[in-house]
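Repro:
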Amino acid sequence: MNLGKFLTRVSIALITTLASSIPLQASQLGPEKVVNAIYRGLRQVDATRSRPKVRWNVANGASSPCGRITGTLYCTRNNTIYITTQHIQMAYRYGDAALAYILAHEYAHAAQTVGGFLPGNITAVELQADCLAGFYMGAMPDVTFDLQDIEQIAQIAYEVGDYEFNNLQHHGTPKQRANAVLRGFKASQGNGISACQVR
């Protein structure tokens, strides 16, 4: 199923419901402003107090305590999120909210690690991080997401999904990834973080 059909058939009602209670914001922000605003918002809603550092605009191939950076990641060895230039560029094919998702997803990995609630396999870990990213973004007191923003977030989550079921690094299908982040948004407006299987 392609993304257009997915958004139309599965998620448009949820997106519309969420957006009806969210103020509109029309302007696109540059990467530095997005990273700073979202990071502040994440720190406000993160009950684990994981407080990871953030390095952004990092080149692929740069070194970190977790080895060579080949893509955006959360490094447990120094509690740091590395956001690559390549992923910033990919995000802005959709818009600034897509970059907010990338940061929120990696921040969720820090919360999983510090909070000690990592699920048992990589697919579950990634889908929970997507759900937490949606929950955190929806719960931030000083940042709002309009319908267009939520669509950008669902689109990039869909894009980063994969069908490599036999790969130990399988992160979830496109539909699973988009559904997980949208479930988190919905949970932030209602039934709470337990919707992300956080106990």
